[in-house]
């Protein structure tokens, strides 16, 4: 087996970010073209109803359960139950909101275009966070 010389693993420290719905742990911050997070959502809590202009994401349920609302507009949302092992791809511009029906842990992998961490349009947010806006 030929192993390229001069290459080595890169180590970083994951960053825990408290959120009103629980917390997220960012373990890949976009430097290599993708973002990796663990989302921990407390039972009964919801992320905002939101969409991303450019960010494309895939979620994998690691533990717990939840409900995902998703669709092209607020009046056209489908509702699906998510359980351990379920994976869902959410393309850019798709409205979505996740609510935990049990304490929920998800892995999220997403694209990392410039400004990825600001690429959210919140249509409804139960926590009144600044930045909630209509498109």
Percentage of residues in helical conformation:
under 10%
| Individual helix count | 0
- Give the CA-CA distance, first to last residue: 53 Å
What's the β-strand tally?
11
At CATH's second level, what is the architecture? Sandwich
Name the quaternary structure: single chain
Structural class call reads: mainly beta
**Rg over C-alpha atoms, rounded to the nearest angstrom:** 16 Å
According to CATH, what is the topology?
Answer: Jelly Rolls
Main beta-sheet strand count, sense and barrel state: 6 strands, antiparallel
Side by side, the strands of the main sheet go 1-2-3-10-5-8
Q: For this structure, what is the CATH homologous superfamily?
A: Jelly Rolls
Query: Which residues form runs of ≥5 with pLDDT under 50?
Result: none
**How many structural domains are formed by the residues?**
1
Order of helices and strands: EEEEEEEEEEE
Strand content: over 45%
Average pLDDT rating? 91
Shape: globular
State the name of the first-level CATH class.
Mainly Beta
